[in-house]
Design a protein that fits this description.
Blueprint (H helix, E strand, L loop, with lengths): L3 E12 L2 E14 L4 E5 L6 H9 L6 E6 L2 E2 L10 E4 L11 H12 L7 H14 L15 H13 L5 E5 L7 H18 L2 E6 L2 H7 L2 E6 L2 E6 L1 H6 L4 H6 L6 E7 L4 E3 L5 E3 L9 E6 L4 E4 L4 E10 L4 E7 L6 E5 L10 E6 L5 E4 L8
Parallel strand pairs: 3-8, 3-9, 6-7, 7-8
Antiparallel strand pairs: 1-2, 1-4, 4-5, 9-10, 11-12, 11-14, 12-13, 14-20, 15-19, 16-17, 16-19, 17-18
Helix pairs in contact: 2-3, 2-4
Keywords: ATP-binding, Nucleotide-binding, Transport
Protein name: ABC transporter
GO molecular function: ABC-type transporter activity; ATP binding; ATP hydrolysis activity
Amino acid sequence: MAELALRELRKTYRSRGRPAVDAVRGIDLELRSGELLGLLGPSGCGKSTTLRMIAGLETVTGGDILVGGASVVGRPAQARNIGVAFENYALYPPLSVAENLAFGLKARRRGARGSRGEVARKVAEIAERVALTDLLQARPAGLSSGQKQRVALARALIREPDVLLLDEPLSHLDAAQRDTTRRELKRIQGDLGHTTILVTHDQEEALSLADRIAVMKDGVIQQLGTPYEIYDSPANVFVADFVGEPAINLLPGISTGDGHARLSRTVSFALPVKVAQDREIVIGIRPEDLELSGGDGVPARVSAHEPLLESGIATLALEGVVRPLVALTGPEVRLVRDERVRVGADPGLTHVFDAETGDSLR
């Protein structure tokens, strides 16, 4: 498969009488052959616009798109060997699954590769890959959401694309179908080795599928790294807050200059780095990195406790601290409202951000 590179890619929307909108602001990315990159971010951050520019469905304001080292900017979508699986499936209702899969090959009229026997062979081959063999004669109306998604994926793969683009591929599936389809998607992409970009707002989807993740906000990549790097070493407050469930605890504080930060008159936490005295910071502690005990730690009052099967979620109030603290507990822990506990955190697992810029200080 081909490498993909984005060079200072930009997209600006202009409308008469209205201010210009910069949807994508100079993205630089390089994907290795066979890599799966997740474009992760909230709605409106520019991730789908980026995907559409790569596919040739959106004009490029500035920058370049290179597939296998050659620029594709200016080429129409049909001249780019790029497969796209859309969020809404975009299947043809009157056609069977087999006819949906064959449609693109027949329309492209690629000589011998478009012959009837060759098309049938390719349809059978990709159907076996994505577990659609028993559904080839069915029509989209009779398929489940998960089956429709597999057909959309197979239709993108059957053209043997240099690059595969997945636009929110699991967003319409229920929880059980999403888990199953996610595992199938991981297997298929690994088996076929397509260079792939996955656009999603679902952090679990990105963390479980992607080799690397680019977290976007307001048309800019905030951080690019492996799932572990994104989760364990967030570059700023936005990344820390967007990635993680339950969400990270973000607590404003002031450095005391002695390796601690004061959150209130009576509450302080140890810091993993030296920070100048009286500097305003934000401490980030993930719920799973908090420890409850009856001895050492900061005094806290239990506001609520949700006992789940594998774990529990405790909401804690700290004296003089406005924001509640959320901690994960073991399945054996049982807490009641207003119970008094002590909570502590390992400084090595604590994140520190500048209060003004939001950037990590680690």
